[in-house]
Amino acid sequence: MAKKKAEQDVRDDLRYHDTRRLLRKYQGVTWSLELSVQRLRIQFHVEYGTDIEEFLDTVYLARTNLGGTDLEHHTQCIERSHKMLTLVQNAVELLRTRHKKGESYYWILYYAYMSPRKLKNADEIIEMLRPHIRDISFSTYYRLSKEAVDAVSSVLWGFTSKDTLDILEKLLPPTAS
């Protein structure tokens, strides 16, 4: 019973499947990750007099355990952020190559959320989209933007997305256990 309650809580908590929020954080996480890696490289070179890659190779060859150190904690944080970014990138790329509107969705997601330079507003995004999507209007942009986020949401979350769970519950009522 507790497991079912926990599953229900996850489905009701919009934070778990808020793709738009995840996409909005993408540029900030990318920037933060780049800064963290650069800061770690500089700090490491100052403290140890070597590049981090050389050090890690030496640690690996010596089979040294870095467990519990600040270095291990910091690299784990960087690794988690990198995995999250890679997950989003892969989902968007899969959408681009497999969905019938994938190319349009890709460019909308790219300019709205993923480009290295944050665009100021919808006007600027639409201007950048013009070479990729002919005759795009504000209403078309907003409609396609919602569709693109919904489509990448289905790639990221699959059949566990909130909307899909509601449909599945109607089609396949829960069985008594």
Helix content: over 70%
The radius of gyration computed from the alpha-carbon positions, rounded to a whole number of angstroms, is: 21 Å
Distance between the termini: 10 Å
Order of helices and strands: HHHHHHHH
**What is the number of strand segments?**
0
Q: How many helical stretches? A: 8
Overall average pLDDT: 77
Largest sheet: none
% residues in beta strands: under 5%
Word description of this protein:
The protein is built from 8 helices and no strands. With 177 residues, it is mostly helical. The chain is extended, with a radius of gyration of 21 Å. The N and C termini lie close together (10 Å). Mean pLDDT is 77; it is low at 6-11.
Provide a concise account of the structure shown.
With 177 residues, the chain is an all-alpha fold. It has helices at residues 2-12, 19-48, 52-62, 70-98, 102-114, 122-129, 138-157, 162-171. The model is unreliable at 6-11 (pLDDT under 50).
Describe the secondary-structure layout:
Layout: H1 2-12, H2 19-48, H3 52-62, H4 70-98, H5 102-114, H6 122-129, H7 138-157, H8 162-171
Helix pairs in contact: 2-4, 2-5, 4-5, 4-7, 5-6, 5-7
Q: What key attributes describe this structure?
A:
single chain; 177 residues; mainly alpha; extended
